[in-house]
Write a structure and sequence with these properties.
heterodimer, A: 283 residues, globular, B: 406 residues, alpha/beta
Chain lengths: 283, 406
């Protein structure tokens, strides 16, 4: 009898990653891709609609800040494509984290009735958003070509930018989704914070408008990991501005936002991992 | 008793739920009252559970609501973290707390099968390879590319059960799965249970259905108040469970009419030895007795005892006779004891013993009508019908004549 060879293993109870890496990755991918399919293949115009929203937003912001209020800000070359890229990247962060907040609660069934690695849930949400980000970035590249930006070697570093955004979003998503299980006002609070981050990051206010206030203000501003990532993206993709280390005045300075970003990810994982075993009981 | 390698070992298992007296739901509250909410009310659900299940054993867990059996199952399934003790399992374990967990109604059956099978622990490749078997077992070949929201609930259950069976775990945890689905599906489940049992899978079945426990389980345990009260022979467990269920109901107030002429002093059931009992095994003799006190004169009285099923179907009734004659008139102060002995023909379940008193013969007047004077529990056999009757089934088969064909 083959069953006689089975070894007794201790059941450790629920955890963030439980059940092995392969199963974890498979599950994240399956859940994310099926969610993606649901969102974008459900209707005929599925994907198109999802790009119309950032595009309209871009139109409004461009009209307001690029045309009407143009004089209030330092003039930047290639502003329209920069704005579009920034919106797409920031939208990914805001959308992914905003959906992730309540995700564990929405999938309550899985948590309470199955041995399901809990971490899959927020990560799948971010992964679904990342799939859309890829498509959006392709569109952004097309716009850039049409606009007349010369393709450059650093375009190949786009995946690095996307990955950085992905990892950072995962960290925030882990933190928020586990906190939300305990504290339900995390959702509205995060709504306000992410809105504030929009204005605190160089999405439509370019770094040139910050630099006029001096080096100290610029450095403080760039400590925001989102600002650092967006600035680096601008340097690599459009090339009309120096990269984050140059803006901050050296690689040592650039370590600050990197450490903050990684710190948030570690904190997110730590909090999630600590909460994971009890989530089924807290819900 | 079977011996062999251990499939599941639970030792010293404790589980306590801490319910805060004042639950803090928001960060705002937390900020306003930083020190509040440290008081908890503790509910100890499992108070030290020890048992072993051998590999290849079909093991039943029974217990009334609140006995901790669902908590035990969720601990075994790795859904709850245990507070004390250890659980060890040999091989891959698939829990079925509920069928169809994680089904997404907006996805097709095909996608749902893949996701669900991976949740059960298969790799995506294995899941794709077994897709056809899963679909054909569920008899849903024609609908595999339909969205699940277009499925009837019965179809969804079939699909979920099929995924479970085909995911081929080493240990199965099954909770009340059979409560759903039509008769044909239930039969299929039963067939699968037989097959899995024969294949030597380790199976833990949590159920209220004693007939299932007695039919399939090699051994069983009964939980009560977070302790194991019985462990061992399924028939024994079934009896203990029925008795426990019974005793908590017997204190309930009985419905019935209050009559000025007569009252029921007592009513009880006795087993074949004449001792008072609440549970009677199928096929054995038992007695139903009622004691009445007459308060006012009753002319041409009639007394009857009857038995109703839990659904309210009267199974049989018996009228009292005196030496084969109608009863003579009754006087106040008289005490009447009426009993009926029956050989238990009842399918497993709870039954009510009813009692009635009438006056007159032509224009029968009902003085007392109490449908539930006492209860009796029958156990041992689930008959797929209310009672067993004397019968002789006969089967005739006419085969096509082979010689005329060739």
């Amino acid at each position: 009898m083959t069953t006689a060879q089975l070894e007794l293993r201790q059941i450790k109870g629920p955890s963030a990653l439980g059940g092995g890496w392969r199963r974890f990755i498979n599950l994240t991918w399956l859940v994310a891709s099926s969610d993606f399919k649901l969102t974008y293949f459900g209707s005929v115009l599925g994907y198109l609609w999802s790009f119309v929203q950032p595009l309209l937003f871009f139109g409004v912001l461009y009209l307001v800040f690029g045309v009407v209020l143009a004089k209030a800000f330092v003039k930047v070359s290639d502003f329209p494509v920069l704005l579009l890229m920034n919106i797409v990247l920031f939208n990914f962060f805001q959308g992914a984290t905003g959906t992730a907040v309540a995700s564990v609660l929405v999938r309550e069934n899985l948590v309470r009735k199955m041995h399901f690695p809990r971490l899959v849930i927020p990560l799948a949400v971010v992964t679904t958003a990342a799939m859309q980000l890829m498509l959006n970035l392709v569109v952004v590249l097309l716009f850039m070509l049409i606009y007349g930006i010369q393709p450059r070697v650093t375009w190949l570093l786009l995946p690095v930018i996307a990955l950085a955004f992905f990892v950072f979003s995962c960290g925030v998503a882990m933190l928020l989704s586990s906190l939300y299980v305990r504290y339900r006002d995390v959702a509205p609070i995060w709504g306000v914070i992410s809105q504030a981050l929009f204005y605190a990051s160089p999405v439509f206010i370019t770094i040139e408008s910050i630099q006029v206030h001096g080096q100290t203000v610029t450095r403080a501003y760039m400590c925001n990991p989102l600002a650092a990532m967006l600035q680096q993206a601008r340097h690599w993709m459009i090339g009309n501005s120096p990269g984050t280390p140059a803006i901050m005045g050296g690689y040592a300075w650039a370590l600050i936002p990197a450490v903050i970003g990684i710190g948030i990810c570690v904190l997110g994982f730590y909090v999630f991992n600590r909460e994971a075993p009890r989530i089924a009981e807290e819900l | 008793m079977k011996t062999g390698p251990v499939g599941i070992r639970v030792s010293g298992l404790h589980k306590t739920f801490r319910v805060p007296e004042h639950r803090i739901h928001t960060l705002k509250e937390r900020a306003l009252h930083p020190f509040r909410g440290n008081k908890f009310e503790e509910f100890e659900i499992l108070k030290g559970i020890d048992f072993e299940v051998l590999q290849g054993e079909f093991f039943g867990i029974v217990g009334r609501n609140g006995s901790g059996k669902s908590t035990l199952l969720k601990c075994l399934a790795g859904i709850y973290r245990v507070d004390g003790g250890t659980i060890e399992v040999a091989g891959r374990l698939s829990p079925f707390i509920e069928l169809g967990v994680g089904f997404n109604p907006d996805l097709t059956a095909r996608d749902n099968i893949l996701i669900n099978a991976v949740m059960m622990g298969l790799t995506p490749r294995q899941a794709r390879d077994r897709l056809d078997e899963i679909v054909s077992f569920a008899e849903l070949e024609r609908f595999v590319d339909q969205k699940l929201k277009n499925y009837s609930s019965g179809m969804q259950v079939r699909l979920a059960f099929s995924v479970m069976v085909q995911s081929d775990p080493d240990v199965l945890l099954i909770d009340e799965v059979l409560a759903v689905g039509d008769a044909a599906f239930q039969q299929k489940c039963v067939d699968v249970f037989y097959r899995l049992r024969a294949e030597g899978k380790t199976i833990i079945l949590v159920t209220h259905e004693m007939s299932l426990v007695e039919r399939f389980c090699h051994r069983a345990l009964k939980l009560s108040g977070g302790h194991i009260t019985h462990i061992g022979d399924p028939a024994e467990i079934g009896r203990a469970y029925m008795t426990e269920n019974f005793s908590s109901y017997s204190s309930e107030e009985r419905e019935g009419s209050r009559a000025p002429e007569v009252r029921i002093v007592n009513a009880w059931v006795t087993d074949s030895n004449g001792a008072k009992a609440d549970a009677i095994p199928f096929g054995q003799w038992f007695g139903m007795t009622v004691v009445l006190e007459v308060l006012q004169p009753i002319s041409q009285p009639g007394i009857s005892l009857w038995l109703t099923s839990e659904d309210g179907v009267r199974v049989f009734s018996a009228g009292a006779r005196e030496d084969g004659e109608a009863l003579s008139d009754m006087e106040p102060g008289e005490v009447v004891e009426f009993s009926v002995a029956v050989r238990n023909p009842l399918s497993a379940g709870r039954y009510f013993v009813g009692c009635g008193v009438t006056r007159g013969t032509a224009g029968l007047e009902i003085l007392l009508f109490q449908n539930r004077a006492t209860d009796v529990v029958s156990y041992g056999v689930n008959l797929h019908g209310l009672v067993s009757v004397d019968m002789s089934p006969a089967l005739t088969r006419t085969r096509p004549d082979r010689e005329t064909v060739s």
